[in-house]
Amino acid sequence: MNILANAIDAFDQANKGKTYREIEVNPNVIIIHTSRLNEHQIKIQIQDNGCGMSQDTQDRIFEPGFTTKEVGKGTGLGMAIVHQIITEKHGGDIKVQSELGQGSTFTLRIPMKAAR
Ligand SMILES: Nc1ncnc2c1ncn2[C@@H]1O[C@H](COP(=O)(O)OP(=O)(O)OP(=O)(O)O)[C@@H](O)[C@H]1O
Ligand SMILES: [Mg+2]
């Protein structure tokens, strides 16, 4: 939910100053791709074509309290919580790739437990 909420905020940011027609021609999309990496791991990729982010922001994105949003809008805790859930609860990992003005992709790898 935190990843999706951020993607929606990134759309708002990217759409600033655009006309309805421009948004219609190049619509906002979130693509979720799931796959099985091997016997022990699954991969979930969540991609948006929102505003993207700088390398500085990517470097700090999982830091608790880090936000680029205006006061009262972001607490900067969303991605820190995501990171904690993925790494500590599930023993997986999460990576971000982004290009300013192009969009962002989050790649999650999560270990699977054998079904019994
Ligand atoms: N999909 C995204 N596209 C562009 N920037 C993003 C995206 N996801 C995160 N960010 C950047 O990372 C920062 C940290 O994200 P995080 O979710 O931790 O905090 P927040 O969204 O600012 O506040 P909160 O989630 O606590 O309401 C954001 O302020 C934003 O700059
Ligand atoms: Mg957030």
Describe the fold and architecture:
This protein has a four-stranded antiparallel β-sheet, covered by helices on one side. The chain is about 35% helix and about 30% strand. The protein has helices spanning about 1-15, 20-25, 55-60, 80-90, and strands at about 30-40, 40-50, 95-100, 105-110. With about 120 residues, it is α+β, with helices and mostly antiparallel strands. A hairpin with a 2-residue loop joins strand 1 and strand 2. Bound molecules: adenosine-5'-triphosphate and magnesium ion. Adenosine-5'-triphosphate binds near residues 7, 48, 50, 67 and 68.
Strand order of the largest sheet: 1-2-4-3
Radius of gyration: 16 Å
Bound molecules: adenosine-5'-triphosphate, magnesium ion
Q: What is the H-and-E element order?
A: HHEEHHEE
Helix content: 25-40%
Structural class: alpha+beta
Q: Report the CATH topology name.
A: Heat Shock Protein 90
By oligomeric state, this entry counts as single chain
Largest sheet: 4 strands, antiparallel
Average pLDDT, to the nearest integer? 96
CATH architecture: 2-Layer Sandwich
Quickly count the domains: 1
